[in-house]
Amino acid sequence: MPPTNRQVRLAARPSGLPRPADWEFTSEPVPAPGPGEFVVAVSHLSIDPAMRGWMNAGRSYIAPVEIGAVMRAGGIGRVTASEHPGFAVGDYVSGMFGVQEYATSDGRGVLKLDTSLAEPTTYLGVLGMPGLTAYFALLDTGKAKEGDTVVVSGAAGAVGSVAGQIAKIKGCRVIGIAGGPEKCRLLTEVFGFDAAIDYRLPHLRRTLRELAPQGVDVYFDNVGGEILDDVLTRLARGARVVICGAISQYNESEVRGPANYTMLLVARASMTGMLVFDYADRYPEAMAELAGWYRAGRLISRETVVTGSVEDFPETLLKLFEGANTGKLILAI
Length: 333
Ligand SMILES: NC(=O)c1ccc[n+]([C@@H]2O[C@H](COP(=O)([O-])OP(=O)(O)OC[C@H]3O[C@@H](n4cnc5c(N)ncnc54)[C@H](OP(=O)(O)O)[C@@H]3O)[C@@H](O)[C@H]2O)c1
Hints:
Layout: E1 4-10, E2 23-29, E3 38-46, H1 50-54, E4 75-82, E5 92-95, E6 102-105, E7 111-112, H2 129-141, E8 149-153, H3 158-169, E9 173-178, H4 181-189, E10 195-198, H5 204-211, E11 216-221, H6 225-232, E12 235-243, H7 262-267, E13 270-273, H8 283-295, E14 303-307, H9 313-322, E15 328-332
Parallel strand pairs: 8-9, 8-11, 9-10, 11-12, 12-13, 14-15
Antiparallel strand pairs: 1-2, 3-4, 3-6, 3-15, 4-5, 5-7
This protein binds NADP nicotinamide-adenine-dinucleotide phosphate.
């Protein structure tokens, strides 16, 4: 009997935080690969804030996940059967395999992993999409340069922790914003940030003024909302605000916009959205640099790995919105 492929499908479009009823668990036989295809046994799923947006209908940078479809997800795994000349049984690969145990692929968008450089899961974090996002958002969109004061929100997470570390490598002064004393300690003691602000405490604006008396040259925003408004009041002249994400707004039916946007005028600053997928043709250049820093021990990888099965996906996704993760949130299945 062929093995069974257990899957998680989108059953309904959520309003607010996703609920158990928004998901459906299904199973089907694992198909044999057709000509030019291979099958991957997925070992780890990437749990991403963007997943919440993919569940919504409406215009975005990517089509929504259809009701009834397997939930979109990045993942890593090993090839178990192949009719593809470029992929052999046993290869470690990463790709958009979906929330399921087995995925069939024609190889498009699938990368083979160099497991001699790093553990496979590192390719979901520092050496994967979050690392690439941090790299291009900070250096290309944010144009961070030596001597800049860089502020990163969501700083203890997958993207934020890499962004702050790259900013340090580039000679910036780096202030991270994260939730809770433990994450703030991690920022300064492990990731090497110069300072950290716990946004759960009052007086974020005042603390930022004390820590960045000359103002903020680059604000790398992962969270939006009130924190964005606070940082806008502290921009240095010519500052670059990078809108990488806005996790505080992903479960809101009415998105809160930046009330303090006129501070862009005062500071002659820019605010720019970025999407990592736009840089696909430059991934090799960034990967080479990220891998070099990683190999040299200048870039530290942190992961929060939840061990379970695909059925644990709905609950694991919620951990992002509770701030339960440090570094990259991964579900090992
Ligand atoms: N533009 C792109 O191409 C691109 C690509 C990848 C990711 N992103 C975005 O980058 C951001 C970070 O993604 P990630 O994968 O690295 O996730 P992550 O930072 O590892 O995890 C999410 C973190 O967000 C924080 N958070 C949750 N709710 C919050 C709230 N209401 N206010 C403030 N902080 C909150 C939590 O940390 P605390 O404990 O500190 O609250 C949580 O740990 C997301 O906005 C994501 O959508 C963008």
